[in-house]
Amino acid sequence: MKMPISKSRTPKRRTISWIIFGLFSIFLCLSMVGGIAVFALYLQIDRSLPSVEALKQYHPPLVTSVYSADGELIGEFFIERRYLVPLEELPPYLIKAFIAAEDTRFYEHGGVDLIGIFRAMLKNIQAGEIVQGGSTITQQVVKSLLLTPERTYMRKFKEALLAHRIDSSLSKNEILYLYLNQIYFGAGAYGVEAAARAYFDKHASELDLSEASLLAGLPKAPNRFSPIHHIAVSRERQRYVLQRMVDSDFITFDEAREALAKPLQIAKSKHWALKKMDYFTEEVRRQAETRFGRDMLYQEGLIIQTTLDLKAQRIAERALDQGLRELDKRHKQYRGLHVNVPKDDWPGTLRILSQSNGELEEGKVVAGLIVEFDANSRTISLDLGAAKALIPQSGWQWAQVSNKRAEKIFRSGDVLRVKLGRRQEQDIWIGSVEQDPGMEGSLMSISPVTGRVICMVGGRNFEKSQFNRCTQAVRQPGSAFKPIIYAAALDKGYSEASILIDSPITYYDHSVKGSWTPSNYDRQFWGPILLRKALIHSRNVVTVKLLESIGVNYTINYARQLGITSQLTPTLSLALGASGVTLQELLTAYSTFPGQGERVEPYLIEKVLDRYGNLIEEHQVKREEVISAKTAYLMTDLLQGVVREGTGTKAKELKKPAAGKTGTTNELKDAWFLGFTTSVLT
What we know:
five-stranded mixed β-sheet; 15% strand; alpha+beta
């Protein structure tokens, strides 16, 4: 009997098995290839990541600070306004405020907070807008210090890797130190110390809870939350930070409420490069940049100690301003501001005046709006915006032009400048009419022994003109140049008792077919005269003859020896100071007289330290003997005679031995006085 034949199922099972095996093998291979690819990509990204080790040597751009001789800060130079502050100097609540605002799980996560990201996502969905970010403090350090600001998934991946590495390599306090010194707070302030100074004019260590919580809210959006421009929005952000601190058990509810209720005193200044001593600090900046380079000056946080005497500087500024104003008033040419405000616009104008005038104090020149002119008392009534002022007749009489009646000069609604005198009542000042002088000047004092610049006022108003008239203005010195000629004559055999002839003389220049007849200021001639008397009374004709006698080229070389570097014209008019020089040059030349024949170079920078306090440079006084001590002594005696009985008798008001020389030019376009005692040359 034949058995039926059935088909075997074995081949089909084998086929399915092979298919499954093949698919698994392919999957395994793809997984391995993918893993290798991902690993290779990771290695590639890893190699492209910046080193975290660099953060251990944190070296950010810092502010270069300039100090006066007595240690007061007078100037700053920077690209990023930043001051490093150790974490231990900061109040604990300030640090907690930033943690509450930016990263409440800072001490719990490893650089990237997945829980925080998820929580922020939910809150943003609930609010319908972005109210909370997911970046940790560590990630913000990465963004600021290690990566570019581009927004891509690759960059976020790199950010996460670096944040994890930083958290593994640095302590939490080290990360906070980097964060609080690096981040931007708006208003040009980088780091919490700069922010404290910018917004509250105090150090970060001095901030209270209210101020600290406001600053902690700024890094998220510095411009949007700026307390300078958007105080209401800034206050709302502060409320959020304080609430987060309460939620995190960093402070109590009562502490938060008290901090929120406290009024904030936002600093008024918006210009962080200090302008206390403008011309002086600008000259320091120019010299420092020449010596050290721009990058080092603006980024390396140098400490520059200068020679400036702040008290002397302030006196010099007031003296120059007062002198120019008094000289301007002698011309009795009142120019006014030529602004008349319609009565409907007075309220707005007064608000502007109140802001622009700032804090009122005796001696300050401010702007005021004329309310009325009282014809009976001859008094001008002014509104300064924040106070009132009265100007009696004695305070405006100098300004009365021609035959105009005062009522027509000082009209209701006119804006004029007034110098504040004494305060009569709480909000009423007695003042005098002022105007900006139509002339300029400069004043500079140095030590004739060392060359130390004690003060430097390069002009009346640095904001209007940065041109430094001490170092840059080449002006004709007039008779102030004569001491150089007389010193040259003494060194060539003349004496104080030498007889000179003060008589008319005419010089002919055949090359131009012209002639020159020098004259004296009083248009008189004194005949035979002692050399001593000729200098004391500044006789022009005698000086021209003396220059001719000793030689023009000899005198020019002599002037170079004393420190004059400007181009001097080799003509006899040099005797009358017809060739321009700078004030600093002439001071250098004069320094040889009280310096017993030794010349010193004026200097402003005493020493320079790096950010760590290490000495980079210190000035070494260099004295060079350029004339004999005998000649220097004789010249000092001659110039003392100028003060005692000559053209400089006004200096006798100092009530101490002084020497000096005046100088004026044609049409009185320039007027000079250089004087000295044993300790100061001005």
